[in-house]
Amino acid sequence: MSIKHDGKIIIVSGPSGVGKSTICKEVVRKLDNVFLSVSATTRPKSGIEVDGRDYWFLTREEFEKRIRAGMFFEYAEVFGNLYGTPKDKVDEAIKEGKDVILEIDVQGARKVKNMYPDAKMIFILAPTQKDIAKRLYGRARDEKKVVEERLNGASSEIAAAWQYYEHMVINDDLQQAVNEVIQIIEGNVGE
């Protein structure tokens, strides 16, 4: 009979357009026993996104109802939309001994780190600000005004990351970034 250990929390954050989602999905694909939490949001779903896979898309009213019911691990308002991590799925995965990746913003990351001081915090960066702009405009998901808001918010997120995150990964080469995140999760990188 094997002893079951509770899983750990891995926080992955970074400005919009740096490739966080792609990196997280690749890490989950390559590692056994890792669960990627799907966040809930009030932002409108794009044409290519799938409810329950990319996000749980909720109305503001439903989201606020779930906040009052204590159903979120963490939540924050970002660029006028609410984002949160459903508590039930995270708790279930941790109890099963799985490592849980939370792809969340800096605000949410700080809340989780206060609750789980052992959480590993990884911040994903693009090589340059110009790369972030190119990626955001290239994905054609948001209106120009929203892209500009996201670009303006990137600088403050990056400044906060240098203060609070233990690990910084530059996504210049996707496979290299994925491998670096895996090394961090597996504990093969100095703290």
Q: Indicate the CATH architecture.
A: 3-Layer(aba) Sandwich
**Which strand order does the major sheet show?**
2-7-1-8-9
Topology pattern, helix = H, strand = E? EHEEEHEEHEHEHHEH
What's the overall geometry? globular
- Sheet with the most strands, sense and barrel status: 5 strands, parallel
Topology:
Layout: E1 9-13, H1 20-30, E2 34-36, E3 40-41, E4 56-57, H2 60-68, E5 72-78, E6 81-86, H3 87-95, E7 99-103, H4 106-115, E8 120-125, H5 129-139, H6 144-164, E9 167-170, H7 174-185
Helix pairs in contact: 1-7, 5-6
Quick overview:
With 191 residues, this protein is of the alpha/beta class.
List keywords for this structure.
single chain, alpha/beta, 191 residues, Rossmann fold, four-stranded mixed β-sheet, five-stranded parallel β-sheet
What does this structure look like?
This protein is an alpha/beta fold. The protein has a single domain (9-185), classed as Rossmann fold (3-Layer(aba) Sandwich). The protein is built from 7 helices and 9 strands, in the order βαβββαββαβαβααβα. The protein has helices at 20-30, 60-68, 87-95, 106-115, 129-139, 144-164, 174-185; strands spanning 9-13, 34-36, 40-41, 56-57, 72-78, 81-86, 99-103, 120-125, 167-170. The strands form 2 sheets. The chain has a 5-stranded parallel β-sheet with strand order 2-7-1-8-9, sandwiched between helices. A 4-stranded mixed β-sheet has the order 4-3-6-5. It is globular and about 40 Å long. The mean pLDDT is 86.
